[in-house]
Amino acid sequence: MGRTVIRGGLVVTAAEEVEADVLVEGERVAALALRGTETAESWARGDAAVIDAAGHYVIPGGVDAHTHMEMPFGGTRSADTFETGTRAAAWGGTTTIVDFAIQSPGQSVRAGVDTWMAKADGTCAVDYAFHAILSDVNESSLKEMDVLVDEGVTSFKLFMAYPGVFYSDDGQILRAMQRGAANGALTMMHAENGIAIDVLVEQALAEGRTDPRHHGEVRKALLESEATHRAIQLARVAGAPLYVVHVSAGEAVEELARARDKGLNVFGETCPQYLFLSTDNLAEPGFEGAKYVCSTPLRPREHQELLWRALRTNDLSVVSTDHCPFCFTGQKDLGVGDFSKIPNGLPGVENRMDLLHQAVVDGHISRRRWIEIACATPARMFGLHPRKGTVAPGADADIVVYDPRAEQVVSARTHHMNVDYSAYEGRRVTGRARTVLSRGRVVVDDGSYLGEAGHGRYVPRSTCQYLV
User: Fold this and answer.
1) CA atoms of 254 and 316, how far apart (whole Å)
2) What is the rounded distance in angstroms from the CA atom of residue 215 to the CA atom of residue 112?
3) Which of 8, 199, 322, 378 is the most exposed place for a label (fewest CB within 10 A)?
């Protein structure tokens, strides 16, 4: 790859908005120059390829720090492969994902990382990295954490939910957090009281409450906030930073805000489904609500404004997707007659950047906050900055020329995710990625896919760059 100039756009980063041209040399951003200056004009007169961005935003490629490609769950696996999922990400303006390598109980953490590395190797359309899920916290796995941190796997997820599958008790969580405090790892937490939820699930099914809407009713907001509170206190005891994933309930946000007001290194993530969908979707007629079964679950609509407010105040710092798609036919329908058997997860890796731009249009967040929560902060949170998440000299040339006026209707008929429905079917949004560069290579342009499997590279990560 040679030189490329992106001309005439408004460069929007988390820090600033500036009318500037961007010079790309090879895989990196070489320089920015104010529009109309002699420097910018000299780039255009040279031998560089020119991308016209007039009337468009020039933004960093999105960083989705929470995806689950090819993830086994409930006797099936998520429908997107690393190839199809990262291609869909590119279509939506996301140029880096961080997926989860799962340690199976009784196996080493390394075996899980190696398995997921093999799945992704040579297949990804955009760059990728990994967190590790700890399913078996013991002396051996704790020692493995040290080695993996040195190798660029610097965050570890634990579950307070799913007893018998991923669940860790408070003692195991504390030990993992203590190790993280020593080696610099960031602890990620699925914060729901799984022991109590299982009791409520059993009671609901015994009473004949089997429809998808009951999935949300048994996974109560109080059990999310209780677990969030407990995770925060364990992190305080361990002296470790904490990142709570897929926060959906206003009560859980209150726990995060209280911790952050104390100056603690406690961070929260939410997802588009909690910002745009609700229990109304879970209650759709027949079995349609199964399309919206995920954990944490969708909440009543009044929680949405609490989440938006927390994004504006930074009590929630990141919007990721928790992309974990299961087809409605052949996967979600495993739970007909028993909501507890519906595979948990929604598709969304292709929709996140556009939905959040719609939030800019609707006045929920500013343009720079859009880039902050979707690009810059996830890059900093997970040790990818300044390579990812910004448009600046030296950064990877992961750049999106974004049309802020393009109108589209979200639909399974036109999306590129390998799933037979859209969680946002029929929703009208304003804004679309027109041209997407991944490390300087154009992978999407004006409705055409120009990328290929294997272009994406594994990116080792440093430790969290977002600590107070």
Assistant:
1) 10
2) 29
3) 199
Within 121-249, residue ranges assigned H as helices are 139-151, 170-183, 194-206, 213-218, 221-238
Strand partners, 57: 10, 402
Nearest to 351 by CA among 269, 427, 454: 427
- Neighbouring CB atoms inside 10 A of 368's CB total 16
CB 311, CB 365: distance < 8 Å: yes
Instruction: Please answer whether residues 403 and 423 qualify as being in contact, where contact means their C-beta atoms are separated by less than 8 angstroms.
Output: no
The predicted-structure confidence for 58-110, as pLDDT tens digits, reads as follows 999 999 999 999 999 888 999 999 999 999 999 999 999 999 999 998 999 99
CA-closest candidate to residue 9, choices 329, 431, 403: 403
Predicted model pTM: 0.98
d(CA 270, CA 247): 5
Peptide bond into 300 cis (omega under 30): no
What's the DSSP call for residue 297? Answer: P
Q: What tokens were used for 460?
A: 């080792």
Q: Is the peptide bond before 94 cis (omega within 30 degrees of 0)?
A: no
Torsion of CA 89, 93, 95, 100, to 10 degrees: -40
Residue 81 — φ and ψ, nearest 5°? -80, 175
The HSE-up count of residue 311 (CA atoms within 13 Å, CB side) is 34
Question: CA distances (Å), 183 to each of 140, 177, 186, 231, 378, in order?
Answer: 15, 10, 9, 19, 20
**Cα distances (angstroms) measured from residue 403 to each of 95, 371, 380, 445:** 17, 15, 26, 12
Q: Residue 319: CB partners within 8 Å, gap ≥ 6? A: 269, 270, 271, 272, 275, 311, 352, 356, 373, 374
Annotate 26-54 with three-state secondary structure: CCEEEEEEECCCHHHHHHHHCCCEEEECC
How much is the CA Rg of the chain, to the nearest whole Å? 21
Task: Please report, for residues 96, 134, 138, 152, 380, the alpha-carbon distance to residue 148 in angstroms, rounded to integers and kept in the order given.
Answer: 20, 12, 15, 6, 19
Nearest CA-CA partner of 463 in 64, 118, 133, 156: 156
